């Protein structure tokens, strides 16, 4: 089905596994995978680094991309960086990588 012509296509199970932005992990599972607490994940949400999707019951659900950001934040916090500063560092790193990617694309056409 073509999404623009017949309505949105429902992603298959395989598509969900491949989608790094699919909210597949509960808060408890995410905290276990990261070796951290649920409160730490909440603090990243409050700081605006990650905004988990919510299930129909209102429970937070995290994607693989969000877990990578949370793992980076945990590294910085473990090194002694305050949570708010860690979140700002990660946002700046992301902006730098995006700028470098765009710059590479612009110069690839030369």
TrEMBL record:
It comes from the Bacteria. Residues 24-92 form the HTH merR-type domain. SUPFAM superfamilies: Putative DNA-binding domain. Residues 1-20 are annotated as: Disordered. It holds the Pfam family MerR_1. Keywords: DNA-binding. This is MerR family transcriptional regulator. It comes from Actinophytocola gossypii.
């Amino acid at each position: 089905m073509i999404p623009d012509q017949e309505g949105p296509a429902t992603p298959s199970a395989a598509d969900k596994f491949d989608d790094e932005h699919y909210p597949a992990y509960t808060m408890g599972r995410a905290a276990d995978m990261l070796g951290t607490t649920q409160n730490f994940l909440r603090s990243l949400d409050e700081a605006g680094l990650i905004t988990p999707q919510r299930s129909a019951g209102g429970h937070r659900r995290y994607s693989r991309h969000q877990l990578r950001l949370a793992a980076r934040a945990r590294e910085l916090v473990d090194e002694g960086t305050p949570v708010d500063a860690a979140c700002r560092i990660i946002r700046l790193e992301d902006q730098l990588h995006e700028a470098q990617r765009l710059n590479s694309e612009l110069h690839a056409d030369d």
